[in-house]
Design a protein that fits this description.
alpha+beta, five-stranded antiparallel sheet, 11 helices, 25 strands, about 25% strand, nucleus, Med14_RM2
Amino acid sequence: MPNFSLAPALDVLCTGSYPRLPSCIRDNIVPPSPLTGPEADAALSLLTVAIRRRLLCEQIPPQMTVRSLEKGIVVFEIPHEFRLSLSVVGDDLKLPWRLVNLEVLVGVGLPGGPPLCHSQQTRYLTQLAQSHLVAAEYPLTHVFTLLHTFCLSLVLDCLHTQAGLMSSMAAGGHVRVDEYQVGQLLRLGYWLPSTLSPLPASVAQMVPRLQITVDPSSPSHPITTTHSPPLPAGTTAQLSLGNLCLEKVVGRCVRARSSAKLQLLRDSLKNTVWETRAVLSSEPLCLRVSVPVRGGHCEVVIGVDVRTGTMGVAVEPGAGGEGVEREVGEMERGIGQPGSYLPGHLSRLQCQLFFDRVTACAKELSLAVSPSLPFPSPLPLPSPHLLFVQLLPLAYLVVCAVESSGVVAPRYYLLEVVETNGGGQGVDEGRMPPVPRIFYSPVTLAELDDAQLVEDSLRAVTVRSSPAVVKRKLQEDSHGLPSTKRVCVMSSHVGFSALPSLCSSRLLLAQIKTSLKMSGIRGYQELWPEHMCPCVSVCQFPLLPGQSRDVHRHLSSLFLSCLIFPAPSGHKLVVSKLCIVDLFVVPFYLVVDTCRGEILRGKAFTAANETFTP
């Protein structure tokens, strides 16, 4: 039988302990009793003194600032990069530093996302930093270089990720990364065309770019932002480690360049009538130009698209129609381009706003309106801004918008045309077989005086107004148009059937003047008697072909007056009343050939014979 250990068994069963173990086990394996509170405070105070002595003896990078030193732990912090906690195990200077804790501060506070540095990355950095603290000659300098380089590389990687998100989502492909070197460089362009094909060299040079460079060796500027081309003077858009939002930096760049573009447009209006009408607004960023139109003002807003950098033009809602939209499109394509002239665009837009109002008035009268007619050569008018309102098949009212001191001063002309083949200036290839193109040749072009277009406020229709355009004063109507002294014929008092007859008489009067001029008769003037139709008064007796000087002198001495006015009926008939000394008034009919502009002599008028026979 085995020999049982009775003595140890009695100790364990009776006392609950075993005092017979070797003393080496108690000295090497059994932990000592913990320190009491006063003993722990005294030990930590000794460690704090040892750390302070060591900080005075070691080389510390200037970027590492001591945030706290207490309870035997020193905390170094580089703002927005990392926080490092170190301690020592004794007061011997040869003992290495011990890394207590490491926190990476890059991206802390960025909305919507987890920390940029994962826990496994932090654990690996802790081990790598501890190895530098043990083996390096200057441990704090080596640890700072290691962690500083890692943090700057993490910053650049974060910005590269933001640029990719902007390109695919927010900017719609108008922001693109041109070059990315890990831990060194990030270059991106904005205001790019939304195309994946390579840009031409001429276009690529004009694209604004933002370059972010990382330099760990620079203590004051570890991250640098450069712009190409440079931003306007007085504006900054720099990236900092405390604000890693690339979208905000690009937004500041876009705003600065947009403001510079609008300021250039504002400067182009200097020394013009538009200078006092243009205001550069900051919220929202745009250039507002007040364009005076007949009866009020219209506001034109010029802005910059933040994604593409192109100019956008908008007119206040309801201020124009198709013509204004077409002019706004041309204005958007033109402004900002080399050789573009903003005052010219505004003048054309102002004329088009006036034409759109005239067009709206003409449509209410069911009159056709055209911006141009097929003439072989331009009409001899003071402005190229024309609008043709068709009154009769071959008769038009020409509205000529003349811009004077920033205000549209319209001039009105009566035009009669004839069709012609244009003298072989082309054929209409759209038809089979091809036929010669039809052109218009002007026969009569007479300007209407402003005094003839102003109507008495007590009458709905004025006889002294032209048959093409009848003016009347309006109070504020249902469409919100302010009252004005010149408004196109929109009165419901004027029936559509009355308008052609008024037009025919006015056109016939213009033909009479043209025919007199072609016949060599210069001494005439146009009269507008009260309660009578307009007429032409011949002031002196003309010299007829084959007439001697003595006969002409004698007839001139007997001549009193001659009035020529449209007949009560008949589109081509006029009545002439000739007054001679000692003779009665002789009325007779004349025929006007509208095609050739000739006056043909007719038969004398009597009460019994009211029918004209050539």
